[in-house]
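Q: Start with the shorter request: fold the first protein.
A: Done. Sequence, then structure:
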Amino acid sequence: MLLGDFSRPAFPPARFFGRATRSPGGAAAFALEQQVPIVPFYGFRRRRFEHRLVFEPPVFLHREYKPHERFEATNELNQRLESMILRAPEQWFYWFNVDERWEPAAALQKANDC
């Protein structure tokens, strides 16, 4: 899945764990514009140097959303990422400054209206 868990001010508005944020929109744009499936996957450590990758069934966003519905498609991918994180939350960590992750909902609504 080409969705990273990070935020940049230029990213489009999104929701993550029920909070306003910004998420990379490339995976949703790619899926909607090129009509390709997104294959979600995640990895976790089983023990010291042993890891497991889990691949989920493909997601066909272009069947559910129109190209202009990137916000909704990105949020669906974010919900899937949330689900993956919740399967092994002790193994998830956020690489960036957490205080920069969340934004006031009003700021994101204004950006979404543009």
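Q: Next, the second protein, separately.
A: Sequence, then structure:
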Amino acid sequence: MAYIDGYVIPVLKSNRAAYLEAAQTAAPIFKEHGALKVVETWGDDVPRGKETDFYMAVKCAEDETMVFSWIIWPDKAARDAGMAKAMADPRMQPGASPMPFDGKRMIFGGFEVLMEA
């Protein structure tokens, strides 16, 4: 069954175009190394919570929104191998394509698919 890498990233609203450009550069690299699909979404209708929410999770400032994205891999073994290759790819190295966000506030993780409908 598929394996998913998920991300929530705070991005300055004014950096939308720069973020999209960076994502369009990175997505083919992940796919070259085995990803089936890369999805990037821009926060549009994200409610604020009382106890927790996406904003609090990444310490999102008023001039930021969050990106919710995921990469679909065939399975965990393909993800482990593909992610290692993608991170070693020269096109993904710092300076090759600057990140238009604060990576220290990004939250991410790998997820087993429990169910698909």
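Q: Describe the second briefly.
A: The chain has one domain: 3-112. Residues 16-32 form the longest helix (17 residues).
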